[in-house]
Structure formats: structure tokens, C-alpha cells
């Protein structure tokens, strides 16, 4: 059970650094200068988004054979490993159209929408498919989002400029690569292709 929390936390923390939603957190912090409503918006948006993603991952795991599930997970984790090496950019207008609603509502809406189809949302689907306790996975991926974004909201540009983003992206890619290789190993083992 602890693994269902800790692995998603670590994976998403690494994957989120330099991600579009982290850049969005930085923009929102600069615009509103109200860290606690922004952090609350991130928590609620991430829980809602990742709960839906985790439910999808859990549902997929129930419908696929173990060999097919691990084969698909291997391919998906390897694809996200490659994706983690591509730095994200932020559309200048992202979040600004909701600004009149205040820091919390703006963050809630902007973060929820920005997470749709993002690598951390897709990672949540895959992690929930791999680990049996999807609530712990969702809590772990949400905690990972907070570990990556709260310091940015609190410290602003200072923290973002000092992070070795290229190294962090490589570490995230390595983590997804290892998960992909492990899933491939499990698929081959379950298929009886390994001794």
C-alpha cells in the first residue's frame, strides 16, 4: 500500500518540474500574489482531475488480462519517458480569461483544464492501472503535484530559475523508462517468455 503512494509521489514530482502546470502556477503567483488560494485551487483541481484519471486506470486494469495490461503499460511508460524530455511551454493567455473570478477559482479552472491530457494525468492513469490501491495513487500523484508546485507558488521566480530543469527532465524520463522496463518484464514473465 505504501508503494502505491510513494512511487506516484516521486514520479509525478519529477515529471511536474518544468511542466506546463508548474509554469501556470508561477504565472498565477505573479498575477495574484495570494499563495494560499492558489495552493487550495491546485489541490482541488488536481484531486478532481487525478481522481477521474485514477478511476479510468483502475477500470482499464479490471478489463484487461495481466499480460495485455503490462504490455500496454510498458509502451505507455516508455512513451511518457520520451515525452518527459520535451520541455513544456505555457500559452500566455492560459489562466488569464478566468482572472476576474479571483485566485482560487482561476487556479481551480486553469489547473483542471491544463492537466487534461498532460503527462502527469496520463501517468496517473497508468499508475492507477499498475497499483491496486487507486486512492493511494491519486493521493500520491496529488502530493507530487504539490511538492513540485507549492514551492514555485511560494518562492516565485527565484526557485524556478535555480532548478536544473534539464537534469530533472532526464531524471523523470529515467523514472518512466524504469517503470516501462519493469512493466515489460512483468508482461514477458506473465506470458511465460521468461524463465
UniProtKB/TrEMBL annotation:
Transmembrane regions listed in the UniProt entry: 38-61, 67-86, 134-155, 167-185
Signal peptide span: none
Bilayer topology: Multi-pass membrane protein
Key words, A-Z: Membrane, Transmembrane, Transmembrane helix
GO terms, molecular function: metal ion transmembrane transporter activity
GO cellular component, one term: membrane
Annotated localization: Membrane
Family as reported in the entry's similarity comment: Belongs to the GDT1 family.
Protein name: GDT1 family protein
Native source species: Pseudomonas flexibilis
Amino acid at each position: 500500500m505504501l508503494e502505491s503512494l510513494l512511487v506516484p509521489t516521486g514520479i509525478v514530482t519529477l515529471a511536474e518540474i518544468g511542466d506546463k502546470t508548474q509554469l501556470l502556477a508561477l504565472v498565477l503567483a505573479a498575477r495574484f500574489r495570494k499563495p494560499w488560494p492558489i495552493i487550495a485551487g491546485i489541490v482541488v483541481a488536481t484531486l478532481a482531475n487525478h481522481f477521474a484519471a485514477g478511476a479510468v486506470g483502475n477500470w482499464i486494469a479490471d478489463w484487461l488480462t495481466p499480460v495485455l495490461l503490462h504490455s500496454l503499460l510498458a509502451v505507455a511508460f516508455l512513451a511518457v519517458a520520451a515525452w518527459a524530455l520535451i520541455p513544456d511551454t505555457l500559452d500566455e493567455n492560459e489562466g488569464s480569461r478566468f482572472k476576474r473570478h479571483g485566485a482560487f477559482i482561476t487556479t481551480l479552472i486553469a489547473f483542471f483544464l491544463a492537466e487534461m491530457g498532460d503527462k502527469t494525468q496520463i501517468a496517473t492513469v497508468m499508475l492507477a492501472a499498475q497499483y491496486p490501491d487507486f486512492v493511494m495513487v491519486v493521493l500520491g500523484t496529488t502530493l507530487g503535484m504539490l511538492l513540485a508546485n507549492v514551492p514555485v507558488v511560494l518562492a516565485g521566480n527565484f526557485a524556478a530559475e535555480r532548478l536544473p530543469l534539464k537534469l530533472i527532465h532526464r531524471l523523470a524520463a529515467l523514472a518512466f523508462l524504469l517503470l516501462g522496463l519493469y512493466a515489460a518484464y512483468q508482461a514477458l514473465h506473465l506470458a511465460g517468455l521468461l524463465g
